[in-house]
Amino acid sequence: MAAHSSDSLARVADEVVRCERCPRLREWCRTVAREKVKRFQGEEYWGRPLPGFGDPQARLLIVGLAPAAHGGNRTGRLFTGDRSGDFLFAALHRAGFANQPTSVARGDGLRLRDCFIAPVVRCAPPANKPLPDEALNCREYLTREITLLPRLRAVLALGRIAMDGFLAVLRGQGRLPTRYAYAFGHGARHDLGDGLQLFASYHPSQQNTFTGTLTPSMLDAVLVRATGLAGST
Question: What CATH number belongs to 9-230?
Answer without folding.
Answer: 3.40.470.10
